Amino acid sequence: MTFASPSAHAQRGVTLLEMMIAMALGLMVLSAVIVLYMQTARTFQQQHAMADLQVRGRMATQLLGEELRRTGFWGEIMSPQRDDKCSDISHFTEIACALPVWGGEVTQAKTLGLVPQSAVTLDSSASRPSAVVAIRYADHGNGSCLTLDPLRHLTLDQPCQGNWHYHAGIYYLRMVDDAYSGESVPALYVYRRSASGNYASSEIVRHVEALEVEWGRDDSGDGSANRFYNSEAVSQWKPGDWDRVVAARIYMVMRSEKMAQPMPAREFLVAGRAITFGADHYQRRLFVTTATLRNGRLRGAYGL
């Protein structure tokens, strides 16, 4: 009589039911790993986009804020003298008018010849603010030489007769072609004056969807702003109004690079006006900062 060894029973294969259960459990584990990976990748992409958005937004607002803090310095705090023609808005950009800063809408800036024709509003309805900011001051850079003549009028000399150079920059928004996304994207540009006197545009940062500036005017002579005015409200200002500007509040809506997952609609309060962005594939954030125009504030407070 032949007896089967105990090892013969231990070596038998799994049943069909056992194999199906094992495959189902394996699929469940694999699905959980895939879902976890996708969620982790999506979270990483969102965090990376927000970090990049934060860096670009802070850089752009800090740059514009620092420029505004320097504006109106002509080698000394005291105000230069102006010609009578400077009361005409068409002469605002002339150096003899010594206008420290100017702000307004892109249509008016084009009329004054401050920005190139490529500076356009960002949508056909013009519901998103696209402000223009012109900044002028003296520094130790490489621009044209800036001096005060005996009658205290500003003049541009060549060659240099002093240590101060003329710095002029005009900040505006325009659409540019983006090779990475294959689309046209909004960007912040500066139209800067070179040492030769010519102007050329250069890009500061991309994905700036809205730019607005409120101008704080000192109407009491104490060096502090009594009221803030948006770009539309300052369209009829004269040089004397701009001389009394002591602060500027900058609003900038930035968006991220295009993302794979859809983002919900967002609404931001920009200079007292609600700006709505529909649902799409971009994250957005509103950056707000207030810059003190130090030279204008000192002149107003001390009657200079």
TrEMBL record:
What protein name is recorded for this chain? Type IV pilus assembly protein PilW
Q: PROSITE patterns recorded for this chain?
A: PROKAR_NTER_METHYL (PS00409)
A Pfam family of the record is: PilW
Q: Which organism is it from?
A: Kushneria phyllosphaerae
| InterPro entries membership | N_methyl_site (IPR012902), PilW (IPR032092)
Q: Which UniProt keywords apply?
A: Membrane, Transmembrane, Transmembrane helix
What parts of the sequence cross the membrane? 20-38
Gene Ontology BP annotations: type IV pilus assembly
